[in-house]
Design a protein that fits this description.
Chain lengths: 186, 667
């Protein structure tokens, strides 16, 4: 018995490799990777390109807006959300007053946006349903919104909801809205 | 000694405590006055002698409402976004003193912060952003709405002066002579105190001045004229701005166009600058139009030469008799959830796609199949929110499910159709899936695959196949759809409803086409709903498409009248959605442009329900604008509506030629 114990004593340092260094290295790598992915997205620009539709109802024109300052500590996903919300609100509010643009019905605003992959969902307030009739306004409004949102990096489609509900069309409307809209739809 | 030290220490401690606490103690709310109403904010904080107001404060909310401003913020958000009635977006970042009024960066004294789940903003910064001037009085501080900007533009054939204010503007003509017109804006003040020499387009100078008290100000705008020019006042729908058009040598003022209708400014004269104190509102003025690109690459979508349009694919589809038939879609509750059985007569291949959260959508396309009208999707229970079935092209039926959350779905082909089983238990799987198979053959086969190519927004995910060829089963048949009707009046102006006008034009078109040898079906021949009164727009539009699709018509033309929120836009447009619509839309629009005398607004591609869900070439003609006075006069003229009908018929003739001879039944 004592022989076995002695033998075990002698062989222990040889049979147990030292894991401390690899574990520390892996830990540091994990911390580094975590910081890399969670760090504020320094590379993305504060400038957003927004589009409005001219009064001919079809021609979209860009204008630039800036969202600043970037809050410290916001993650990549938070920053993408902030930018998308700002872009959607700018697109719905439209360009400055003396620029002649087709505008959403008065009072229309953006409740929130959500990004899922390459699709951004823009939730509009119920005022958007107060369309005057005719295809002109609907087409021009959503065209400018789709162009604005798909100008964001990685976004190619825009799903419209109204007060959180996906609608086939606006009441009495003409455009089909229950599918994500793309630039190629216009 | 020790007692003295203790007393001194206690006093110092108390003093420090008081100093630390003072900035955080809510101050007694001062009184404010706006538009004759006195109020106090209740959600207030004071930091460094600066008042901050919580965005949920009831009085602030009422003030926002009065000014047409809307605030966007929710707990956790990093920005407080205020859309003013200007319209401009003011963005405050929590914890940052810099905020933005449109393109202008400004610094507030105190950074916005969040307390108790409510964002607090410096009220001075907010008032300035909203075009309000704070004027302190003995008892109350008056919030005086301002004339925020004044633009003078040379429009080539005259001048235009545009004033904008914090509240909707109403101008009263205070003094008029051949050389001077003075307008009064009651209730508004301004810091734009200046005389500007113009000397162009009949306008010699512009002067703006303010009189009255802080609570009851009046701002005067005086236009000095050269004696031969005339002034017309025009406004926009929201009343936020007012324009004055100065026409040199004009004999009448009544014909002046509204703001939105006027030709674009050729150049913008420098705006009247505020003096002596610069004001933020003036800096809000957007960059001149010249800074915006004059040519957009996307213009080509609408303006591309028609000659370069891609040819329409001419592929002969399989004979209709070889198509399988979907007879029924039945839902059955099972112990594991819900199973949909798609009953099939004949064989059809299929492919299915299941998008995971957040879409939670599933659809299956059955190829070589037609949908029987009686195969109505069933009403279902959780976890299926709804089931939709439609013939997306002559040989493909799509059945789409919206799922309430993440649930596993299995697709099992059978000899009599295909079963779609939705598991009632939420699933943790998050990968989208897809598969293919053949059903109705007696020897079921199925293949599963990952759905990477379609996950996350395939452009054609839910759209009708845009390149599908179409062969009408009745090539002599044309379907005319008079837009709206019944409970849906469409656009209405001065008691004239779009639904009535479109029916009239459709009947006129039917008479012409029938005289030329076409068979014609109208989706409605009376002022009624096609599906049901007070139905949804989707039900109504799909019902109209169904009529054309089931009849196998050669083409579908939907007739409408356009409208907008102001009188500016006018003209005739033909909208289309699918590539096979384009030649038809082009030919009809060309004839309309040549014959009806309205502004030619061209053809426009859009994501419109009617042409998207029609198998055949289809388009939607917006004949003219009810909202435009000139177009309205035309729309209400029967002779003009007849012209429209003739032009559309000629466009159809250009596109389709003469109607094919009727097939005589064999003796």
């Amino acid at each position: 018995m004592s022989e076995i114990r002695r033998s075990g004593h002698r062989s222990a340092p040889k049979s147990r490799p030292n894991y401390a260094i690899p574990i520390v290295v892996l830990l540091l790598l994990a911390i580094g990777a975590g910081w890399w992915f969670m760090r504020p997205h320094a590379a993305s620009s504060n400038t957003l390109t927004i589009y409005y539709t001219e009064m001919n109802g079809t021609t979209v024109k860009p204008w630039d807006v800036t969202l600043r300052p970037r809050p410290a500590g916001s993650t990549r996903a938070q920053w993408a959300h902030d930018r998308a919300l700002y872009a959607a609100l700018q697109a719905v509010v439209g360009p400055p007053a003396d620029v002649r643009a087709v505008r959403f019905p008065p009072g229309t605003h953006v409740n929130d946006v959500a990004i899922h992959g390459s699709t951004v969902t823009v939730d509009l307030s119920k005022e958007v349903e107060s369309q005057p009739g005719g295809t002109f306004g609907e087409n021009a409004e959503f065209k400018s919104l789709v162009y604005s949102m798909t100008a964001l990096p990685g976004i190619s489609a825009v799903q419209i909801t109204v007060e959180g509900v996906r609608l086939p069309t606006l009441p009495g409307g003409h455009l089909e809205l229950d599918e994500p809209l793309h630039r190629s739809d216009f | 000694m020790n007692r003295s030290i203790a007393r001194i220490s206690s006093a110092l401690f108390a003093l420090c405590f008081a100093l630390l606490c003072v900035p955080r103690i809510a101050v007694a709310a001062p009184l404010w006055q706006f538009a004759g109403r006195t109020f106090a904010f209740t959600h207030v904080e004071q930091r460094d002698s600066t008042l901050l107001v919580g965005i949920d404060d009831p009085a602030l909310r009422r003030l926002f409402h009065s000014l047409g401003a809307i605030v966007t913020w929710k707990p956790g958000a990093r920005y407080v976004l205020v859309a003013t009635g200007e319209p401009t977006i003011v963005s405050f970042a929590i914890g940052h003193r810099t905020y933005d009024i449109g393109p202008l960066a400004v610094r507030s004294k105190v950074a916005p912060f969040v307390r108790g789940g409510e964002a607090f903003l410096e009220f001075g910064a907010l008032a300035r952003s909203l075009g309000l001037r704070k004027i302190a009085g003995r008892a109350v501080t008056i919030l005086q709405p301002q004339i925020t900007s004044l633009d003078v533009r040379d429009e080539g054939n005259g001048m235009r002066v545009i004033a904008r204010g914090a509240i909707p503007l109403q101008a009263r003509l205070a003094r008029a002579s051949a050389r001077q017109m003075t307008y009064a804006f009651v209730g508004l003040g301004t810091r734009l105190l200046h005389v500007r020499s113009v000397d162009a387009g009949g306008l010699v100078a512009v002067e703006i001045s303010q009189v009255g008290t802080a609570a009851n100000p009046t701002t005067y705008l005086t236009l000095d004229l050269d004696g031969s020019s005339h002034v017309a006042q025009v406004g926009s729908l929201d009343g936020r701005d007012i324009g004055f058009v100065i026409a040199p040598g004009a004999s009448t003022l009544a014909a002046a166009a509204p703001v939105a209708r006027a030709a674009p400014a050729t150049r913008a004269a420098p705006a009247v600058t505020p003096s002596p104190t610069p004001q933020v509102a003036v800096a809000l003025r957007p960059p001149p139009n010249a800074e915006l690109p004059t040519v957009s690459p996307w213009n080509r979508v609408a303006n591309e030469p028609l000659a370069t349009s891609p040819p329409v694919a001419e592929v002969t589809p399989a004979p209709l008799s070889s198509l399988a038939q979907i007879d029924a879609i039945q839902a059955q509750l099972t112990p594991n959830g819900v199973t949909l059985h798609v009953a099939l007569t004949g064989a059809a291949s299929f492919d299915w796609h299941h998008l995971r959260a957040p879409d939670n959508r599933f659809w299956i396309d059955l190829h070589g199949a037609t949908l029987e009208p009686s195969a109505i999707p069933p009403s279902t229970s959780a976890p299926i929110e709804n089931v939709r079935a439609r013939q997306i092209d002559p040989q493909t039926v799509r059945i789409a499910l919206s799922i309430d959350g993440a649930h596993d779905i299995s697709v099992t082909p059978a000899a009599t159709g295909v079963d779609i089983a939705v598991n009632g238990t939420p699933s943790l799987a998050d990968a989208s899936t897809a598969g293919t198979g053949v059903a109705g053959t007696g020897t079921p086969s199925v293949t599963l695959a990952a759905a990477a190519p379609v996950a996350g927004g395939d452009p054609n995910l839910w759209s009708v196949n845009p390149v599908a060829a179409y062969v009408p089963t009745n090539p002599r048949l044309i379907v005319i759809d008079p837009g709206h009707g019944g409970s849906d009046r469409g656009a209405v102006r001065h008691g004239v409803a779009e639904a009535v006008l479109t029916l009239d034009m459709a009947k006129r078109l039917r008479a012409i086409l029938e005289a030329r040898g076409w068979q014609v079906i109208m989706t409605r021949t009376k002022d009624v709903d096609v599906y049901a009164p007070f139905d949804t727009a989707e039900q109504e539009l799909q019902a109209r498409d169904n009529i054309a699709n089931r009849a196998g018509a050669r083409l579908l033309v939907s007739i409408h009248a356009n409208a907008y929120i102001n009188a500016g836009p006018n003209g005739t447009t033909t909208y289309y959605a699918k590539p096979i619509d384009l030649p038809l839309a082009r030919d009809i629009q060309n004839e309309l442009a040549a014959q009806v005398g309205t502004k030619n607004d061209g053809i426009v591609k859009s994501h419109l329900y009617i042409p998207l869900h029609a198998f055949m070439p289809a388009c939607l003609v917006e004949t003219a604008f009810l909202s435009n006075p000139d177009d309205f006069a035309l729309l209400t003229d029967p002779a003009w509506r007849q012209k429209v009908a003739v032009a559309i018929a000629d466009g159809i003739a250009d596109y389709a030629g003469a109607p094919p001879p009727a097939i005589q039944p064999q003796q």
